[in-house]
């Protein structure tokens, strides 16, 4: 992972929660579609649309689980 990059929680179209590096206007591992990205979901191990999640709307358990599942370490 790139040092200094913070991860954010996203949800894929199939409902999987995971953490990723999300930098607005920058993406090397995904195809951007407005506020969503088409990238490989580490939960389902396939390419899916991912959108940002408001982490405060998640339970502590959901947040911990999402933070434990990470995708590749590049934006």
Distance between the termini: 9 Å
Class computed from helices, strands and strand pairing: mainly beta
Structural domains: how many:
1
Overall geometry: globular
Largest beta sheet, briefly? 5 strands, antiparallel
Q: How much helicity do the residues have?
A: 10-25%
- The largest beta-sheet arranges its strands as 2-1-5-4-3
CA radius of gyration is: 11 Å
Low-confidence stretches: none
Strand content: 35-45%
What is the number of E strands? Answer: 5
**N-to-C SSE series?**
EEEEEH
The quaternary organization reads as: single chain
Q: Overall mean pLDDT score?
A: 90
| Number of helical elements | 1
Descriptive report:
This protein is globular. The protein has 75 residues and is mainly beta. It has one domain. The N and C termini lie close together (9 Å). The protein contains one helix and five strands. The longest helix has 9 residues. The chain has a five-stranded antiparallel β-sheet with strand order 2-1-5-4-3, covered by helices on one side.
Write the layout of secondary structure elements.
Layout: E1 7-12, E2 17-21, E3 31-33, E4 36-41, E5 46-52, H1 60-68
Antiparallel strand pairs: 1-2, 1-5, 3-4, 4-5
Can you describe this structure in just a few lines?
By secondary structure, this protein is mainly β. 12% of the residues lie in helices and 36% in strands.
Any descriptors?
single chain; 75 residues; mainly beta; five-stranded antiparallel β-sheet; 1 helix; 5 strands; 36% strand
